[in-house]
Sequence to fold (186 residues):
Amino acid sequence: MLLRIMDVGKGLLLWVVVPTLLMPPVVSTCPNTCRCDNGFVYCNDRGLTSIPAKIPEDSTTLFLQNNEINNVGIPNQLKYLLNIKVIYLYENALDEFPVNLPRSLRELHLQDNNVRAITRDALSRIPLLEKLHLDDNSVSTVSIEEDAFADSKHLRLLFLSRNHLSSIPTGLPKTLEELRLDDNRI
Fold:
């Protein structure tokens, strides 16, 4: 760090110069396997088994659908990308609800995976979530934790069509405006 003092008439001006080498790098490059454009990161239909490293920090929407991403392929670093609002992870190889998601997330698409359970722990990590798409998974009534939605104070849309539900889930948030349960065992 470099301090500079300048005499400006009747007072002194103090400057603090911090070399750019000491500042943490801002990731703004796009992963080689993806295409990036104005906060949108397109990594869909690439045969990926994990989310690529070096997702730009200014990303707002991740298109990761139609890959082979499993739960191990969701890196811990993803939860630190706090500008991300929407993630498309449908048609992948997920068998658990992902937990390394950014707290800033508002919309999550997990259709056509093999997610079997919904837990309070997983949902409490994404408290601002408004839209959750879990159609075409393996969720059953007994696999939804009793208080799973207790921290989902912003959830407006919940799509659970084509799962293994035998009854309407309990403990749904009062903010819910649309619930889709078509083609279940109800």
User: Anything to note?
Assistant: The radius of gyration is 21 Å. The longest strand covers residues 2-8.
